Amino acid sequence: MARSRRPRPLTSRSVARRGRGIRGPLFPPDLPAARTRAEKFDHMVLGAFEPIDARWHDRLTKLDIAVDDVPRIRAIDPDSVNWPPEVVADGPVPLSRLIPAGIDRHGTATRARIVLFRRPIELRAKDPQDLEDLVHDVLVEQVSTYLGVDPEVIDPDLPGDD
Question: Does the predicted model carry a pTM greater than 0.85?
Answer without folding.
Answer: no
